[in-house]
């Protein structure tokens, strides 16, 4: 019988997608779960759904900053309490580049490279407040991870191969029911697939996958 499988759609602009990503990457509860991370363009999903960005909703714009810090504290996720200047940034170049990375490095190797890139980009933006959407900053981060030659290739591929794959990934997220991030698609050992939205619903994700939800720390606050 196959083990539990989980797909997480990500865009570095979303603090809650970062928190979900960090928990999946680091919490032992998911160590037996096959996880695939898929870069998408969140603004494209929001526009296609007619969804209003929370930053443009009165009071919600303030609430999301409070809420992201709460979850970061509960799960010891590295995140500066201050909101980065200019939030939310346009992440189109970042996400096209991450898609290009998975084209240059396909399969499991690509996932390995992608997660290292996401680790670095999330930390650079949400902890260090670096302007990761700027080409020079992005190239510098990727250069340290991939080497200058491959980083240059990925940056070049972002305009064509990366653009095409980002569109496909975003359409895939929409087909899977996404209207925001984090969006999870979880398949349990019996082959039953369900989708979930929000870092606060990770408890439901673990229940569906047949994983034992811890009774300590931030897990006590999970739905």
Tell me the number of helical segments per DSSP (H or I, 4 or more residues long).
Answer: 8
Number of DSSP-assigned strands: 4
Strand order of the largest sheet: 2-1-3-4
Q: Give the strand content.
A: 5-15%
User: Mean pLDDT across all residues, rounded?
Assistant: 96
Instruction: Report the structural category.
Output: alpha+beta
**Could you give a short account of the major beta sheet?**
4 strands, mixed
Return the string of H and E elements. EHEHHHHHHEEH
Distance between the termini: 27 Å
Helicity level, as a percent range? Answer: 40-55%
Uncertain stretches of 5 or more adjacent residues: none
From the alpha carbons, calculate the radius of gyration and give it in angstroms: 17 Å
Name the shape in a single word: globular
Report on the architecture of this protein.
The protein is α+β, with helices and mostly antiparallel strands and 223 residues long. 52% of the residues lie in helices and 10% in strands. It has helices spanning 15-26, 42-49, 60-74, 92-104, 107-126, 135-146, 148-175, 202-209; strands at 5-10, 34-39, 183-187, 193-197. Strands 2-1-3-4 form a 4-stranded mixed sheet, with helices on both faces. β1, α1 and β2 (34-39) form a beta-alpha-beta unit. α4 (92-104) crosses α7 (148-175). The mean pLDDT is 96.
């Amino acid at each position: 019988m196959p083990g539990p499988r989980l797909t997480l759609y990500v865009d570095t602009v979303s603090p809650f997608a970062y928190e979900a990503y960090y928990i999946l990457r680091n919490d032992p509860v998911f160590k037996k779960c096959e996880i695939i991370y898929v870069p998408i363009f969140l603004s494209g999903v929001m526009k296609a759904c007619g969804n209003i960005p929370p930053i443009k909703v009165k009071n919600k714009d303030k609430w999301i900053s409070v809420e992201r810090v709460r979850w970061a504290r509960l799960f010891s996720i590295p995140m500066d309490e201050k909101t980065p200047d200019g939030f939310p940034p346009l992440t189109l170049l970042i996400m096209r580049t991450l898609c290009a990375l998975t084209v240059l490095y396909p399969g499991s190797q690509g996932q390995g490279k992608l997660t290292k890139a996401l680790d670095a980009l999330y930390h650079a933006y949400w902890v260090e407040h670096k302007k990761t959407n700027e080409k020079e900053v992005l190239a510098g981060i990727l250069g340290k991870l991939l080497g200058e030659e491959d980083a240059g290739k990925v940056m070049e591929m972002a305009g064509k191969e990366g653009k095409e794959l980002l569109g496909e990934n975003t359409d895939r997220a929409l087909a899977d029911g996404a209207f925001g991030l984090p969006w999870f698609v979880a398949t349990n050992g019996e082959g039953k697939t369900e989708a979930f939205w929000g870092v606060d619903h990770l408890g439901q994700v673990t229940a569906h996958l047949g994983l034992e939800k811890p009774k300590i720390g931030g897990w006590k606050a999970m739905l």
